Amino acid sequence: MLGAIAGDIIGSAYEFGRTKSKEFPLFGPGSGFTDDTVMTVAIAQAILTDGDYRKAALDYGRRYPDAGYGGFFQGWLHSRDPKPYNSYGNGSAMRASPVGFAFDTVEEVLREAQRSAEFTHDHPEGIKGAQATALAVFLARTEWDKDLIRSEVASRFGYDLGRTLEEIRPGYGHDETCQRTVPEALISFLESDSYEDAVRNAVSLGGDADTLACIAGGIAEAYYGPLPSEIVKKVQEILPSDLWEVADRFRIEFGLE
Predict the structure, then answer these.
(1) Torsions phi, psi for 256 (to 5 deg)
(2) Which residue segment(s) compose the domain that 183 sits in?
(3) What is the domain count for the chain?
(4) Which of 6, 47, 216, 234 maximizes the CB count within 10 A of its CB?
């Protein structure tokens, strides 16, 4: 899941100052963690403890109330009795990578991905985005090749994964739906040759850069293996200690060192 967190941090500087190029500094003055990281850590913490995704999301979201949440999520976070709000936003997918690392069958991954989404994102597309992301992570870490990952995710979820980044990039813009984020993030991974290349692909689409890179980065870590040490070091420097401790414990627990 460090791949997802690093992707969020790298993409954060380009969420609004968008780029269509792959040539950009990975880290700079504008690099920081966002709601993508906070919620990814929350899901990981629930997996490591009691499995209560909703409780963990409320806990970490309220610890970090200014991390950049969308308006509906902000309302949910500060409600006296938070209820699902039929969202199909990409927030369900951005937090799903720990599920793909932690569970050992397709059935478990799909079930837990749904659980990790539906306490807020109970729209079918919101659940599908979380399941597709978690399943791609699971398939990548269980040594499926890219053609099989592409065909399995496309056939199961109906995403068009036959496009290329060159075809997508010119007309693509900021979009916070699962339907227009998850397929593009998957393609960013599928066209990559390394973790860093996957993240650069995602950012270079000129869209919701931190979330695209978070999703692509989680899958890329599962496929390519542990992140380069210099990226891990930067993540540790940027994250507050409580977030880093969960991320580090998770990678030790699930052999992601």
Answers:
(1) -105, 20
(2) 2-253
(3) 1
(4) 216
